[in-house]
Design goal:
The protein is an alpha/beta fold and 123 residues long. The chain is 31% helix and 33% strand. The protein is built from two helices and eight strands; from the N terminus they run H-E-H-E-E-E-E-E-E-E. The strands form three sheets. It has a three-stranded mixed beta sheet with strand order 1-3-6, with no helix packed on it. Strands 2-8-7 form a three-stranded mixed beta sheet, with no helix packed on it. A hairpin with a 7-residue loop joins strand 7 and strand 8. It starts with a helix and ends with a strand.
């Protein structure tokens, strides 16, 4: 009877350890599958743009992939508000965008001289 109890306890311990290791592996795999494109708008950007300087923070077309679970993050470290599409990003704030489906999004962008930004989301 004691032997059976010990055996059941060992089986339970092995299962518990296996579930724990499997959970850690799954979380790590999930984190690795997600990619984040972070664009930081440095201090003084608005002043430079107003002076006519061309600033290449990021291209006018950004390509993201649903299969990689890409996320776009624009961090505004400048002292002026910026515009990305219908959103205004105040100084010190970030714009975070996850995409649920593929598509092409043409947005107004105050960081480009043409004030245009295209985001292409692929499968």
């Amino acid at each position: 009877m004691q032997r059976r109890s010990l055996l059941l306890s060992l089986v339970g311990l092995v299962l518990l350890v296996g579930v724990g290791i499997g959970s850690i592996w799954w979380l790590n795999m999930r984190d690795e599958a997600q990619r984040t494109l972070v664009i930081s708008v440095p201090p003084g950007t608005a002043v430079r743009l107003a002076a006519g300087d061309e600033i290449e923070l990021f291209p006018q077309e950004i390509v993201l992939h649903l299969s990689e679970q890409d996320t776009l993050v624009i961090q505004n470290d400048d002292d002026e508000t910026i515009t990305i599409g219908p959103y205004r990003v105040a100084p010190g704030q970030r714009f975070i965008q996850h995409f649920a489906g593929p598509g092409t999004f043409d947005l107004v962008c105050s960081l480009h001289p043409s004030e245009q930004l295209r985001i292409v989301v692929k499968r």
